[in-house]
Amino acid sequence: MASLISDTEPPSHLHPTSTDLVRRKKRLSVSSSSASSSLTTGDGDSHARWRSEKQQRNYSAKLIQALRQVRLSSSSAAAATSSPPPTAQKRGKAVREAADRALAVSARGRTLWSRAILSNRIKLKFRKQKRQRPAAIPAVITTGSSSSSSGGRSKKRRVTVAKLNKKSIPTVNRKVRVLGRLVPGCKKESVPVILEEATDYIQALEMQVRAMKSLAELLSGSDLAPQRG
Amino acid sequence: MSSRRSRSSRQTGASMISEDQIDDLVLQLHRLLPELGNNNRRSGKVSASKVLQETCTYIRNLNKEVDDLSERLSQLLESTDSAQAALIRSLLM
């Protein structure tokens, strides 16, 4: 099987179309052996990591298994230990947690947030998502021309970060703190750690959204299929 | 990643990390964001705080989308029981 790793596509077009995902899922059993042979090659760049085919197959498989377990635990809700009570919200939350756990596992424990998700699960705590305080103070933008220019890295145009002067540093710090509260497990980390975790977390979330959307379309599409007895 | 550590003149007392590193990370973050308003007319600088603000909004949106999708999936999972079991079995085999 050729080229399992799709290289860094531009993030603006996310269209692994649902047919793609269906085809990928159908080839799960065949490709699982070959997927294990081609190990994480796109590790240096986090972009490639979350967009590779192998990663998506990995996650889809785990997601399906996790969802099956949720379904089984909810169907046998008689005396199960952690069965969600029959309310829609609780079941939705159970699905979300299962999906997050599958996501965290496919991160292979290299990131903070994935470890936080898994350890929170073990501690039987729910992940709290605090609301952000409205940051109404606008930042001072100084277009200093001597700021760092990353010419070789940005793809099409030269984008640089505006120079951080003394007035904007506490603002930036505060926003980074807020961001750290959004990403699981990064509430007390330093600024560069939070930024790095956020980039990885965003890509993982994007992949999760794509996978769940395709799965939902798949299931609802089969719903319209001829009814079974 | 960043080999330009020469400009570490201003070190905030809390983090002791050079500005260059933070700029690099912010740029990386900016590239991930959906580029709605950042068309070619902003071809110059990006404000770090704006990038962070958009990042927070984007993460919250993604979380909300995942929540909605998981609710929808939970409804789908319980509604079609036998059909879905057959489907999943066929997917996994």
Global structural class of chain B: mainly alpha
Topology order of chain A in helix (H) and strand (E) letters: HHHHHHEHH
Helix and strand content put the structural class of chain A at mainly alpha
| Percent helix of chain B | 55-70%
Number of DSSP strands of chain B? 1
Distance between the termini of chain B: 42 Å
Separation of the first and last Cα atoms of chain A: 39 Å
Shape of chain B: elongated
What pair of chains forms the biggest interface? A-B, 80 and 67 residues
Question: How would a textbook summarize the main sheet of chain B?
Answer: none
User: What amount of the residues of chain B lies in strands?
Assistant: under 5%
Number of strand elements of chain A:
1
Q: Top keywords for this entry?
A:
heterodimer, A: about 230 residues, mainly alpha, globular, disordered N terminus, B: about 90 residues, elongated, protein dimerization activity (chain B)
Could you explain how this protein is built, in words?
- The complex is a heterodimer of chains A (229) and B (93).
- Helices cover 55% and strands 1% of the residues of chain A.
- Chain A has helices at 18-26, 28-37, 46-51, 53-75, 88-106, 112-122, 168-182, 191-223, and one strand spanning 160-161.
- In chain A, α5 crosses α6.
- With 93 residues, chain B is mainly alpha-helical.
- Chain B is 61% helix and 2% strand.
- Chain B is built from 3 helices and 1 strand, in the order αβαα.
- Chain B has helices at 19-32, 48-79, 82-92, and one strand at residues 45-46.
- In chain B, α1 packs across α2.
- The radius of gyration of chain B is 22 Å and the shape is elongated.
- The chains are: A mainly alpha (229), B mainly alpha (93).
